[in-house]
Write a structure and sequence with these properties.
Blueprint (H helix, E strand, L loop, with lengths): L2 H15 L10 H24 L4 E2 L1 H28 L18 H26 L10 E2 L1 H38 L5 H19 L10 H4 L1
Antiparallel strand pairs: 1-2
Helix pairs in contact: 1-2, 3-4, 3-5, 5-6
Protein name: Dynactin domain-containing protein
Organism: Hydatigena taeniaeformis (Feline tapeworm)
InterPro entries: Dynactin
């Protein structure tokens, strides 16, 4: 059953190796595969972990956790930088150490994404540095319940990265249209026509609960 999903990943990897992976390549099949394996994990793996009473060796799990969080943080940083460039914001707004900040609107969202990515990156590298080099002689053991919480954190981070990617892609398409019409790109328009529908769509697709009164930029 998973063969088709593996072929999807192999196809995208092949395009990446040939430097043919761009915005024109549809990621719908990849998103479907991620949802498939997430459902398998939720249905079969999580109940099995919860049924275990003893601790488990978590060295490899924490290694993968740090690797995935680093990848997601980089994806969010790139997306935030693109949004800043598209809307005429200084790129320093993405760097929390630059001192450049914003109080409202899209600039505030971009600055927050930069802070989030920097924090996740720092903590992930800290985790990776502290992992034992030999998992057999120095096993890292946690109760199974911790694995479930880590998976939930990864799941929410991946959702965030998906929202940023999709928002950046739709904003890039809007930039092309605005350039053809020789008009500027308004940050409020990006929130209204790109970020808001994207966040609402991804949250609905992933069954992520959120208050109906919460603005999309706050949900993100």
């Amino acid at each position: 059953l998973s063969a088709g999903h593996e072929e999807t990943v192999d196809h995208l990897l092949d395009l990446c190796k040939r430097d043919q992976l761009d915005d024109a390549v549809s990621l719908e099949a990849l998103i479907s595969s991620v949802n498939f394996f997430n459902k398998i994990h939720t249905t079969h793996v999580v109940p099995a972990l919860n049924a275990l009473s003893e601790s488990m060796n978590c060295t490899e799990m924490m290694t993968n956790f740090a690797r995935i969080t680093l990848a997601c943080s980089e994806a969010v940083t790139v997306g935030a930088s693109c949004l800043a460039a598209f809307t005429g914001q200084p790129l320093d707004i993405v760097d929390p150490e630059s001192g450049v900040g914003a109080e409202t609107g899209l600039p505030k969202v971009i600055a927050h994404m930069g802070q989030l990515s920097a924090s996740i990156r720092a903590h992930s590298r800290c985790i990776r540095r502290r992992l034992p080099s030999n998992s057999e002689s120095q096993p890292l053991c946690f109760p199974p319940g911790l694995s479930v919480r880590l998976d939930l954190a990864l799941y929410q981070l991946v959702i965030c990265a998906r929202c940023v990617y999709a928002t950046t892609k739709s904003t890039a398409q809007m930039v092309a249209t605005q350039m053809a019409e020789q008009t500027g790109l308004d940050a409020a328009m990006v929130i209204r026509e790109c970020l808001a529908p994207t966040v609402e769509g991804v949250l609905a697709e992933t069954d992520t609960p959120v208050s109906s009164t919460t603005p999309p930029e706050t949900s993100l």
